[in-house]
Amino acid sequence: MLRGEGDEIQSVLGNIVIGLVTSLLGGGFVYLWERAKRARAVNRRAAFFGVRPGQTCLIVLGNKYSSPGTAHYRDVRAITELALIAGELGCEVLVETGDFRGGNGDRTEFCVGGPTGGSNMRTGGHLAAHLPGVVLHPYDAGRPDSMAIEVGGEKFPLDRGNEEYALVAKFTPEESSCPVFLVSGQTSVGNLAATRFLRREYARVSRELSSIERFCLLVRVSGIGTYESHRAELARDATAAAFGE
Question: Considering the entire predicted model, what is its pTM?
């Protein structure tokens, strides 16, 4: 073998080795970058919902309107969405009914459903204790503001079957170390639409908020006759008005 041929073979082998090393390093960096990216996404979602991976989350489910002991199927689907969020973050879930009493302590609480008709009295208690600027008007067929959500004097009416609203609030009671995440729709459609919307759009919503530690939002559900609970959008950040700031 001529010396020039040997040098050429060594050069080719060297290039192959360099290429393999470069590929391995590049693949390793891509893997680490993707892993870090996924970790950041998980941390952002956990921070928005107020969940600590590995903890037990408390889900409080309201009764079906005027039917104690039963739950609307949409509300069951709503808490399923929340349970999926908790499960994806490595959390256990404990479900209680709307007559649950006591603090949430070191458990993040997801409270679903409004207090109208005795559906979820815990929601009424949370609103009275922590959101002085919010009024949930009761059902009254003779009044135009029946089932309206009022925040800071502004009313968000119920247009049943066409357009509805859900109030979503997050706050931490003084006696607790973890927050309460409250979802109170005008009907079960709003409860399900709001939880779906937040599971899908939490990252965008969190960027629009001045703080994710405490907030109060109005989620609008539209086109219900066609899209049911699948079309929702952020209608207003009502944090200041709701907390009386």
Answer: 0.83
